[in-house]
Specification:
Layout: E1 8-11, E2 22-28, H1 34-42, E3 49-55, H2 59-71, E4 77-81, E5 85-86, H3 91-100, E6 105-109, E7 119-124, E8 130-133, E9 141-144, E10 151-155, H4 156-161, H5 184-194, E11 199-206, E12 208-210, E13 213-216, E14 219-222
Parallel strand pairs: 2-3, 2-4, 6-11
Antiparallel strand pairs: 1-3, 4-10, 5-12, 6-10, 7-8, 9-11, 12-13, 13-14
């Protein structure tokens, strides 16, 4: 069943792969820093990869489009690579290894782009409130509860298990209780956790998070 594509797709030559192994989806605002372009060129992905670019006026619709694209193909993995996140060259290989070892969702490690410079992934506390993290052990694979979609690898099983909409932005909805106001990525992660799916963060897969500058290893630097 197709839910209809609401965001613009830009098709590239690599979309001609008949039986893709991986869908790499890049939500973008239209312009990227040269550092992002360099990082993307250096990223090692399988030869059987289809690349899509979504021009997101509405980010949750864009991410839902990506999920539907994967279901419409035989790809078994979906990689989100946002236009403000620069992964290491071996980033995909590291996340794919996490899935091969049993995880359902795997994220790189990156920090918020503005103070306080906390780590984006979160561990939920016993009272179901997010535990904000300032540091994690280096070069470790840790099971956490939430992650951003800046550099996120998702197994097909996850999209087949969860119901549409996979992503929903509710953070600005004042009609909802505070605990139900979430970014689209945390909405996705919370539903995955409730479904018994596992999310890990590879702390050795350190990404740069770009804005007016970029945050790398918890330190803000200008572009």
């Amino acid at each position: 069943m197709s839910y209809g594509m609401q965001s613009q797709r830009v098709f590239e030559a690599s979309t001609m792969v008949d039986t893709p192994e991986l869908i790499c989806y890049r939500p973008t605002r239209g312009f990227v820093p040269i550092e992002w372009a360099d990082g993307f060129r250096a990223l090692r992905v399988p030869r059987k990869t289809r690349f899509y670019t979504g021009n997101h006026g509405v980010i949750d619709s864009c991410r839902n489009d990506a999920c539907q694209i994967m279901l419409d193909t035989k790809a078994d993995k979906l990689l989100f690579l946002d236009d403000d996140t620069i992964p290491p060259a071996d980033g995909y290989e590291r996340l794919e290894k996490c899935l091969a070892n049993g995880a359902d969702i795997a994220s790189g490690l990156y920090w918020r782009r503005r103070p306080p410079l906390l780590i984006v992934p979160q561990k939920m506390q016993d009272n179901n409130t997010p535990g904000l993290l300032s540091e994690l052990p280096k070069d470790s694979v840790l099971m956490l509860d939430r992650a951003g979609c800046g550099f996120l690898l998702i197994a097909r099983k996850v999209i087949e298990t969860l119901k549409w909409p996979w992503f929903k932005y509710t953070q600005d909805n004042r009609d909802l209780p505070v605990e139900d106001r979430k970014s689209e990525d945390f909405y996705f992660c919370d539903n995955a956790r409730k479904a018994g799916l596992t999310l890990v963060v590879d702390t050795g897969c350190v990404c740069q998070h770009c804005g007016m500058g970029f945050v790398d290893d918890g330190i803000f630097r200008p572009l």
